[in-house]
Each structure stands twice: as structure tokens, then as C-alpha cells.
């Protein structure tokens, strides 16, 4: 379905595209408007993953007495570095959100609607931050999926494939001893 058929305007991508004027629907129950916005989220990263490129937000704004309800999909590219082999990969993620933007909103429960302007920045950060993995492992299960794993194994740095416990954990073995073998 094209944008024209769906009623979604083309995304805005100027410096203030994360701010939307909602004076026409704020406080007007039942009033709706489709929108699309594209902007960069600066500094949204964890040590091995980061949001890269533009963040796209497409959805519908609905007016209610308290303010505006946002129902949208937030999507962005996430660049991840494998914790095992340090291979870098980029993937596209999308998050569905339904959030309330209220006049004088409570920071813990709702987003604030100030001067009939809705700011998508914090909402997008909150949604996408949950998609960033703490320690991405991109080559799970398949050694061939990780191009550097063979080199790591040759030098003794890869995960062990055998079932032998790591000898460094031997002092803790007494805590897991069979209770029937106790004296």
C-alpha cells in the first residue's frame, strides 16, 4: 500500500523533525492525524551496539482530553559488534509503541506535551534502547557463521566445545557436591 493510499505524508527530515506541532488535535477527542518523521538519535549506544543512521517514526496521532496518544512504529539501524569474534554487523529493527503525551505530563508515566509540541526524541530513545543488546553474540551455534572463530580457536581464545568444567572453578565444586556423599 502506498503512502498516499495509507494517508501517511512523506517523512520530514529537517533539524526539528522530531518535534511535531499537534495544536490541531491536542485536547480534541477523536481527532487523528497520520505522520512520518525521520531524524538522527545522537549518542544512543551501549559498549558493543549503537543506533546508526536515521531513525524513522511512522504512525498516527490521536487527540484525547489529556493530550495526544501516539501509536507508531519506530525503526532504525543497529550496528552490533560480536562479543566473541568482533565482527561488525548492521540490522534494521522496528518497535511498535503506543504512548501518551499529556499536558504537564508526569515524567515517569507519560511524556510531556509542551506548547502543543510533541517531542519524539525521548520516546524513540526509550523504545530503541531496549533493542540494544548488552553483549551481542552474532555467531551462535554455527562456527561457520563467525568468520574469525577459526583463527580464535587456533590461538586458544574461542569458547570451549567440550563438557569439561573450567579448572578455575574447581574450588567451588564442593558447593555442588552430592549431598548423599556427605559425611
Describe this structure in words.
This protein is mainly beta and 183 residues long. The protein folds into two domains: 3-129, no CATH class; 143-181, no CATH class. It has helices at residues 3-6, 120-129, 149-154; strands at residues 19-21, 32-40, 45-46, 49-64, 67-81, 88-103, 111-113, 117-119. Strands 2, 3, 4, 5, 6 and 7 form a six-stranded mixed beta sheet that branches. A hairpin with a 6-residue loop joins strand 5 (67-81) and strand 6 (88-103). The chain is elongated and about 70 Å long. The chain starts with a helix and ends in a 29-residue tail after the last helix. The model is unreliable at 1-6 (pLDDT under 50).
How is this structure best summarized?
The chain contains three helices and eight strands. The chain is mainly beta and 183 residues long. A hairpin with a 6-residue loop joins β5 and β6.
Head-to-tail CA distance between termini: 74 Å
The strand count comes to 8
The gross shape turns out to be elongated
Which structural class best describes the helix and strand composition? mainly beta
- Oligomer state equals single chain
Helix content: 10-25%
Beta-strand proportion: 35-45%
Low-confidence blocks of residues: 1-6
Radius of gyration: 24 Å
Overall pLDDT: 79
- Main sheet specs: 6 strands, mixed
Number of helices: 3
**H and E string:** HEEEEEEEEHH
- The total domain count is 2
